[in-house]
Specification:
The chain is built from 18 helices and 27 strands. By secondary structure, it is of the alpha+beta class. The strands form 9 sheets. Strands 21-20-22-16-23 form a 5-stranded mixed sheet.
């Protein structure tokens, strides 16, 4: 899956991050570990790169190594209290993924393929119910110990246990077990034929069995690991840190890939800095001024107004600082105001639909966003997997084959609207208007039992319609204020509560909210992560991505169809059917997206042409380099 970070939800994304697992995925099929093992596999068809390729096309193989990359805190994270990125509680230090690797590496210019990293070859069984990896004999953890099959099994077993973030159990639910075949050979067995599973287990983060082991032989429980240095195989080590304020990573002088007879192709052009320093700022304005003062090298901007008005000054005029909007081809996914349907107030889909009519995107884009954004019209926006990709079309025969039996079996869970034209998000562009939209909202609310009397919108019991919007910072308040003004015209009362990132994360983990902004990560090739995002079981587990609380047998069935798709056509039909059901259930009030990454950087920073699918921060960290001024 290819992740991007439009607008403002990197903080939320980092909260929900499956470190390493949800970076960029890829892979195709080999057959047996002896005769048909390959370095690369693809989910559908063949991988782009043949065995023995020199490097990915989107890197600079001659990029100079050296220097320090200094970055600010990504998103709204203003502190950290642990190094373990795999547990539920706490806030992970930025950049900790630099210390971990997986059996295989995804390619950023393909939809779904992987190539051996710790593993030298990969083989998918003829029945596709297992995949086998053979680990490179040179692969070492940062303490010099060998990466063995037992470590891979240990990593999988721990992540599937109750000690790790519960998301792993949901995401890897179709993986039966990891089996050690020999010292350096490990096999993953699957419960069913899911074409994504070999890709998923190939990108599983691997860590040593000795992480957390004390000198006396006792072991710290995995969920208690905090500032114990991770024991991974990655390019970097922690050099120093100031708790919650900064952290410095240095290149491991004994990094295992340095000892190979020839450069490791999936690492050529990657990680060009000797050190990576993160500085955490408590205020967005301070962070911007620190960049202008030269305190760090690059910054990714998610706010349209700041991009338009803030990145100015003498250093920009002199060319010492530069700004550029980099195009990407990432699917934009879904970003919007999510309603917690665990709350009785949001149970009725007519109520949820009505609330969507009060958001005036056209006014926001014109008055606040400087016309930089497009409207989200799908859960798979900017992708051919979207039911709106070809405009407001009706379901295809392939989609109807999925939807009709579900409508018969679960009529209350399949809105009638899914069989018509896929509707766009409410618009105030002429001939529509906010006034007309609010009338539609009022009619929907009336049919749902809400009427205006005694100065407020009330139900039959006389209770006012009132809810709370929670956010992890104040920078979104201008948007929320506009939305609230329109809701007040309907007689709806809204309270707003902002908090720091850590407290907001805790509330999200416990689902203690009425409405909040969500950003569901983009994916060119959605699969098992949808169980965690929309699946019924995930809605019952704390800390899942299913913050909305969706528990629908129809959604579950369509996710199952997505994960079992055998080719791109089947995947497209399943995602579009799922899109229609989610969209017409009105769980999220869609917001907007930007098809570019907005990056400001010092003139010393250099970069290759960006790949097709990428997130800005990882691209900077992985593929940029620095040429010091003379």
């Amino acid at each position: 899956m290819h992740l991007t970070n439009p607008i403002r939800q990197l903080a939320q994304n980092s909260r929900r991050l499956l470190p390493m697992l949800l970076l960029i995925l890829v892979g195709t099929g080999a057959v047996s570990i002896t005769a048909n093992a390959a370095q690369g596999i693809a989910q559908y068809g063949k991988p782009k790169y043949a065995d023995g390729f020199a490097h990915f096309d989107y890197v600079n193989p001659n990029a100079p190594k050296g220097g320090t990359l200094t970055l600010p805190n990504p998103g709204q994270r203003t502190s950290f209290d642990k190094f373990n990125p795999f547990t539920l509680r706490g806030v992970t230090a930025p950049g900790i993924e630099l210390m971990f690797e997986s059996l295989a590496e995804g390619s950023a210019d393909e939809v779904s393929s992987i190539y051996g990293l710790l593993a030298e070859d990969i083989a998918i069984a003829p029945d596709r119910l297992s995949v086998t990896f053979r680990i490179r004999p040179e692969a070492k953890f940062s303490d010099g110990s060998a990466v063995l099959a037992a470590d891979v099994k240990h990593s999988f077993d721990v992540l599937m246990s109750g000690l790790a973030h519960p998301r792993y159990k949901t995401t890897f639910a179709d993986v039966k077990q990891a089996v050690v075949l020999s010292e350096r050979t490990v096999r993953f067995d699957f419960k069913n034929n899911n074409t994504e599973l070999p890709i998923m287990v190939g990108t599983l983060p691997i860590f040593s069995r000795n992480w957390g082991r004390r000198p006396n032989g006792s072991v710290i429980a995995f969920d208690k690991l905090a500032f114990e240095a991770p024991l991974g195989s990655g390019t970097y080590l922690i050099e120093s840190f100031k708790a919650g304020k900064s952290i410095v990573y240095k290149r491991n002088p004994h990094y295992w890939a340095n000892d190979l007879s020839k450069p490791l192709n999936v690492r050529v052009g990657f990680y060009n800095f000797d050190r990576v320093l993160y500085k955490l700022y408590g205020d967005d304005a301070v962070r911007l001024e620190a960049f202008k003062a030269g305190e760090f090298d690059a910054i990714v901007e998610y706010r349209a107004k700041i991009w338009a008005k803030g990145y100015v000054g003498s250093k920009f005029g002199e060319g010492l600082l530069l700004k550029k909007a980099f195009q990407n081809h990432n699917g934009a996914g879904m970003q919007g105001f999510a309603m917690n349907v665990r709350r009785p107030l949001f149970k009725d889909p007519r109520v949820r639909e009505a609330l969507g009519y009060a958001l005036d995107f056209q006014w926001l884009n014109r008055q606040i966003f400087y016309d930089q954004y497009g409207r989200i019209n799908s859960y798979f926006t900017n992708s051919d997997l979207s039911a709106n990709f070809d405009g407001p079309s009706k379901p295809t025969e392939a989609e109807l084959k999925l939807l009709k039996p579900l409508k018969t079996k679960y009529p209350q869970w399949v809105p009638d609207a899914v069989f018509g034209l896929m509707p766009a998000a409410p618009s105030t562009a002429s001939p529509s208007s906010l006034r007309q939209n609010l009338r539609k909202a009022r009619e929907l609310l009336m049919h749902a039992g809400w009427q205006y009397r005694d100065g407020a919108l009330r139900n039959e019991q006389g209770e006012p319609f009132r809810f709370e919007i929670v956010e992890d910072g104040g920078f979104f308040l201008r948007v929320i204020s506009s939305y609230i003004r329109n809701l007040e015209k309907l007689g709806i009362g809204v309270d707003v509560r902002t908090s720091d990132f850590a407290l907001h994360q805790k509330r999200m983990n416990e689902y203690e909210f009425d409405m909040t902004t969500v950003r569901f990560p983009d994916s060119q090739n959605p699969g098992n992560e949808l169980w965690d995002r929309f699946g019924s079981q995930a809605a019952k587990e704390k800390g899942s991505d299913n913050v909305v609380g969706i528990q629908s047998p129809v959604v579950d069935a369509l996710i199952d169809a997505v994960t079992k798709a055998q080719n791109r056509d089947e995947l497209r039909a399943a995602t579009r059917a799922l899109d229609r059901v989610l969209w017409n259930s009105y769980y999220v009030i869609p917001q907007w997206y930007n098809p570019t990454h907005r990056v400001a950087y010092r003139k010393e920073m250099q970069f290759p042409e960006p790949p097709l699918y990428y997130s800005a921060e990882p691209w900077i960290m992985q593929n940029w380099w620095k040429v010091e001024s003379k």
